[in-house]
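Amino acid chain:
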Amino acid sequence: MTSHAAVVARGWGKPCVCGCSDIIVSEVNETVTVKDLNLVFKAGDVISINGATGEVIKNPIEVKTPELKGDLELLLSWADKEEGVMKVLANADSGPDATQAACNGALGIGLCRTEHMFFSPERLPIVRRWIFHTECLDDLDHIKHFQRSDFKDLFVAMNGKSVTIRLLDPPLHEFVPRPEQVNVNVARELGFGKDVKRMLERIESSKSLSCEVTRLPFCV
């Protein structure tokens, strides 16, 4: 069975190794422990990952840009021969993703996941403020700008090929902070002043926000 995490990582051009049952990940301490080898890696330590072989190496090694080769290259070559019957489309959520997909021969974008446009560090706080304070039109204007800019980049990269856009499919836990992440600075950044308690109450009641969030506009 193919891991969804590996599929998403491939779309980002990132190596991914799944099913590492011998490691323990601690988000609290920001460490990764290899049980049998008694190795502990801390945030900031450098490791190397070979997604093709499933190897995780404790030292930095030389890296190179991913290439279309092997079984994937063979599979796509079969699809190219049947272009009249079969089209290979890409998952792409940004201009660079779409450009890379076009370079690899994609005949369009089969799925643009709108929610992925808002996870970058400079955008996420704006979307979070809008979720908690839907009356804030300034934040809504910023969100519209993000969408228009990103959609334009997608269409330009695809150069007339089809693009399918899913408006918003938001598991709210992907947008709102986890309770353990909330402090005075986060509360202030997201429009709650110093009222951490009120922000935690809003997070707890976030299920009722689902209908509001799914009204995020589609702006071309």
Summary: The longest helix spans residues 137-158. The domain at 74-213 is CATH 3.20.20.60 (TIM Barrel).
